[in-house]
Structure formats: structure tokens, C-alpha cells
Predict the 3D structure of the following.
Amino acid sequence: MALGQALGLRAGLFMMPRMPSPLTGDFPSYRPRRLRGSEMLRRMVRETRLHPDQLVLPLFIRPGRKVRNAVPSMPGVFQLSIDEAVREAAKAQKAGVPAVILFGIPSKKDTRASGAYAKNGIVQKAVRQLKRDVPGLLIITDVCLCEYMSHGHCGLVKKSGKSATIENDSSLKLLARTAVSHAEAGADVVAPSDMMDGRVAAIRTALDSGGFNNTPIMSYAAKFASAYYGPFRDAAESTPQFGDRRSYQMDAANAEEALREVALDLREGADIVMVKPALAYLDILHRVKSEFGYPTAAYAVSGEYSMIQAAAKRGWVDERAVTMESLLAMRRAGADIILTYAATKAAGWLKEG
Ligand code: PBG
Ligand code: ZN
């Protein structure tokens, strides 16, 4: 500007005129506190909203009747027999939660995960019962093999000498078979969480040739190898019996790779992409939503839930306030859909206003 003036150039013609910051006015004419003065004003200018329609409740289903096994590391979460799951799902629906996602705990595990794609598998039976007894509730199924594998891994294991590898391509067939069997039972959406390469394409192809071309896929597209899954593995009884999941789940340090994973899943036919965990990965969530603009889900995982529960139990944080602030943060970062163990409670709190 100074140089421009010295040369006699008119500001605005050759140079950008000095403008107030496009983001704010200046004090004292602009006082941000003016709009914080009452709850009425705060409500009016609130940018992000949380609504029960955006919540999904995870349910752990096990065989039996009238079974409600508390999961010690997840207060308020239970392994449920199908009859109890129906009650829990109806309660969620009454609170305004539109959807549940099902995880199965089979009576037997093996090295081919046969329980995952059995016609009368635990999830398949639960889907049929829930579709009958809780009409209008959206049923999503988690598609993975780990809960059904004796070794607890998300794919087929090939042993050679002392080492073992999780096989990619042979696992795809079983995952596709599992997804189709869920759709046959009546699942509204299938959600692959295994992190094998190419599984969305394999599932899309299998669904289409099975007559389920209208069944959406919600892929756990950017799923990180996370210590926050600890309590879930108690709940789903899916702890790997050897090794860990780092050869298939993502490294916590990688954001660029997460975008490639999402791009790949979208090209393979994913309809909704998920980032998991949520709170420690809000940057990823934000980038995925702004980069691709697709319906985006965030999974507030077991460890996130348990930490809030544990601190709240001790009176160290306010359960309701911290839960709602966390869910709002996921919305603000870009989540359209949030999977959370607090779904029913949160929906109830939202109704209270
Ligand atoms: C298994 C699966 C996991 C979760 C969802 N599906 C655990 C894992 O990968 O070990 C985690 C959910 C949670 O922690 O709440 N494929
Ligand atoms: Zn798995």
C-alpha cells in the first residue's frame, strides 16, 4: 500500500484496498458477548445442532432368553439375548433413536467364522426378530468376522511356522457372504468393519447379484488401530488371541492415508463412510466431510464412553454435560451420523431440551 501510494497508484485499482478482517468487526462496535447474553440469543445463533435422528445405538446380541449380562467396563451396556434386545431397541426408538447397529456373540467360534454367515446365526435371527417386533426401526448390521473366529481376528489366518498372517483376498468371500446373509435376514444397512482391502467392492458385487442392489453400505472407511476399543472387546468377546490388528487397521498417525481409504471405499460403492474412533480423530472427520461431502458417520467407541462413565461415577465430570459436549463436537467436526452407546440417554436429554 505504502509503495502503491508513493507511486501514485489508486488503491483498489492495482492493489487490494485495506479491508477490515472479513471474519469480524472491530471492538468496540463489534462485541461478541452481545449474542451470548441470554439463552434465547444463544439458541438463535447456535451453529451446530444435535438431533436424535443422527444417533445410532450399538447392541450386543447373545444366545439365550432373558439374558442381560452387564459389561463391567461399560456401565449401562449389556450383552442381550434377542428378547431383551427387542426391549432395548424399542426403548431407544421411543426415545427418538431411529437406528441400531448389531454385533453378535455366537455360541461357537471356529477358524472359518461360520457363525458370521449362518442362516440361523445370532445376528441373522436378531435382525428377523427386530424387523418383526420393532417396526420402523432401522437395522444396521456390523459385518466382520472377529466375533466368530476362535482366534479373534477380522480375517482368515494363515499360519506358517511361528508367524501368522491375516489373509486379505480369501477373507473377502466370507465378508461378502456375511453381508448377503444379513440382507437376506432383512438388514436395512450393512456396515463392514474388518478393514480388509477391497471389501466394499466385494460386498457391493455380492449384494447386487443377490438382488440387494438397494441395500446401502456404511463402511468403516477410516478405522484406526486404537486402544480405545478395549472395553468393546470385553463386550463382544472378540479380543485377538495372538498379535494385534495393526496389519489391517490404520496407524493412528496417518491422516492422508485416511483420505485415501475413504476415496477407495467411495469408488468401491460405499454410501456412508465412517471415521472411528471419533473424539481423538476429529481432524480426520472434518477432512473426510469437507473433502468428499458424503454422508459421514463417527463412531464414539467403547473407550470414549467408558472414560466418561468412569469419571462421572467419581463425580469428576458431569455425565450429561460431557456426553452432550462430546457428541456436539463430533457434529461440529462434520459427522452426520453418530454411533454411540449413550444414544438412548442422549435422545432423552435432547427431548428434555
Ligand atoms: C470389530 C469391531 C470393533 C469395534 C467395532 N467393530 C473392535 C475392534 O476392531 O477390535 C469397536 C467398537 C468400540 O470400541 O466401541 N471389527
Ligand atoms: Zn472385526
In short: Residues 169-185 form the longest helix (17 residues).
